[in-house]
Design brief:
The structure is a homodimer.
Chain A: H1 12-15, E1 23-28, E2 34-35, E3 50-54, H2 61-69, E4 101-103, H3 105-111, E5 117-121, H4 131-144, E6 149-153, H5 157-169, E7 172-178, H6 183-190, E8 195-199, H7 203-214, E9 222-224, H8 230-235, H9 238-247, E10 255-259, H10 264-278, E11 288-294, H11 299-306, H12 331-341, E12 344-348, H13 350-364, H14 370-384, E13 394-398, E14 416-418, H15 422-427
Chain lengths: 431, 431
Amino acid sequence: MAVQTVASTTDSAAANSVDLGPAAALSCRECGHRVPLGPVFACEECFGPLEIAYDFSAYDTEELRGRIEAGPANIWRYAPLLPVPADVATKPNLNPGWTKLVQADNLARELGVTGGLYIKDDSGNPTHSFKDRVVAQALEAARAFGFTTLSCSSTGNLAGAVGAAAARAGLRSCVFIPHDLEQGKVVMAAVYGGELVGIEGNYDDVNRFCSELIGDPAGEGWGFVNVNLRPYYAEGSKTLAYEICEQLGWRLPDQIVVPIASGSQLTKIDKGLQELIGLGLVEDRPYKIFGAQAEGCSPVSTAYKAGHDVVRPQKPDTIAKSLAIGNPADGPYVLDIARRTGGAVEDVTDEQIVEAIRTLARTEGIFAETAGGVTVGVTKKLLGSGVLDPSLTTVVLNTGDGLKTLDAVAGTGLTATIRPSLESFREAGLV
Amino acid sequence: MAVQTVASTTDSAAANSVDLGPAAALSCRECGHRVPLGPVFACEECFGPLEIAYDFSAYDTEELRGRIEAGPANIWRYAPLLPVPADVATKPNLNPGWTKLVQADNLARELGVTGGLYIKDDSGNPTHSFKDRVVAQALEAARAFGFTTLSCSSTGNLAGAVGAAAARAGLRSCVFIPHDLEQGKVVMAAVYGGELVGIEGNYDDVNRFCSELIGDPAGEGWGFVNVNLRPYYAEGSKTLAYEICEQLGWRLPDQIVVPIASGSQLTKIDKGLQELIGLGLVEDRPYKIFGAQAEGCSPVSTAYKAGHDVVRPQKPDTIAKSLAIGNPADGPYVLDIARRTGGAVEDVTDEQIVEAIRTLARTEGIFAETAGGVTVGVTKKLLGSGVLDPSLTTVVLNTGDGLKTLDAVAGTGLTATIRPSLESFREAGLV
């Protein structure tokens, strides 16, 4: 793996020339080693993953709350808690976030939830998935580091999010995808006019090539949102935690059901909740985090049920393509969080995913991506097994839009076909 | 046409038992005849279209402005100006609106606009088109009149909007479409679980059948959002005008480019702007409204250019299906507004529509429906011909999402295909 060498320092914030707001340094999640902010993602000491360390010490709780509430109706209301400059909202970007937290009373009735059930519906983002949140952070890091090309490997949602964000920011984009991706997905990514390069190989080959490119002079000036900008990128998922709590009236949910792909989103939601507690913005009380996978790609769920601490890779085979990461980098952290908070990790079959998509659409008018079918399906399953408590406030994430995975419900069709006459209408029993 | 008979009255508000907020009566747009609020759409005196008459007399400008600004981040912040009960925001509905007004500096540079160019991006609505705004009003009227089934005729966006809104509200829905609609559109409408009925015939046959059904006992308790609830439904488009002005800092835009299907949206945007002026919420100064059509369905544009007051029906043949109404009911009103405000009506070819979709995506990261290609294309054309003034603040509407009309840009694809190697990458000239 190509890791750019950086000078180690104990006073990294002072050594940084980049302005990324409260972000003070990069810190290794394994050994705690700190390095200055830069386009690096692995610890030089132990090769553990780097994440952002912040300096929030100057914040006054009520002043901060007021500043957030007076902020824009997008993720930048939380700029004081993100690795972005203070003037981020004035720069051209897609301004994602502040998506609806839908009180899902119909679904609650159907599932028997009495303590309040909410869908955090991220299909309302600009390119209709939560990826806009993370790409927006990576974009600021790319600007701070002087990168001129925004790049990524992707099989779907991320490609569009990167293409759109780069277009709006006036950066070049170059997105790498497997060459045989479905035409619809290619169109969704290509329409923004950036470079879209098909790689002759599978998604693993695409990733391997991207890592090579980062270490090569040809990749100079390139910010790969999910590789060399990953520590910044990943922080975007914290905004889901912030929004949920603020939308609940600055209150922690009791239970939250999160999809697992790499596991990064779940770990950052936990980080976000911990930050809100630490800052005094919400009351410190227990919350449980539940992870949701598709049975056809359930390495974390399998490890959880077996009581393991390590995650054994799987070869994905599920309709939930946006969650189909067989070797999830943050798997062990997810296991730790689920166990520590009293949550769990569960999986559902493709049939259950489709049924859950239909249930959510029928009860709440929300058409979810397959990943949303996974979380709703797992919620139902965990309620059935008594692991989720129906008397507690529960938030379920929908991270994408059903329009992007139409194939999953392709069997859905007309309930009747009639001639244009009242007689035919009556015959069909539609009265 | 089946018109329910209602008692005529000069003091209609007092006679109404329904609570639809400031809506006082229905008033004929042709002869001014007033009738009480009810599920009727044509004047009993002259068969002219009925629209909502309001009583805004009790409002204090600054108190109203404060109430709006403190309201929710959706159309219900404007509840005091809509035909809905005051507690509308507490009822289950999709809460559409408050979509982004995107300052489109990149597009402005490309088109040579110096006075400020904005895209009002309604793809951010719950089912990703402006239809959620109008259906939300119809839903409140349906509840007020005790209807139990929400219905419509549709060939696309409206079907999904009605299905989703009814699902969330706990009403039955029954949507009528031509039986041979593309499978993708059928899925988008059917997923919400309501009745979706294919009619053996074209869209005209579907409409004729719906009118028959309204007059028949079989249609009792049915609210057809775009037929017997049309006066309420149509008011939803006013919220586009309200939001644009509030998002500009309570200021009228100088120029606004609106797509024309039936023409209702454009006339209601004008009505909304006039109301804001009348209420003192914006300064009274001139604004120009421009109508945009596809050349393949340009009855209003053709009449405008010929200097006619009447609109001659056309047989639609364009990729802009959501605008393909060959006999637009509000055509004459659109002509009047365009001429009165100093605007114009123009049309663009399918090729120009596709080019405009690509231009908007490439410059601003917004993937528009074909209707958005029409407005952006017409904006470019009118700037080229000097009809639009580049030094004035201009707002262009995008009323739908590109994911719904992927076919329009189906030719978009990979910029290169390479082997997973740096050598192949260099050969492709991507460095």
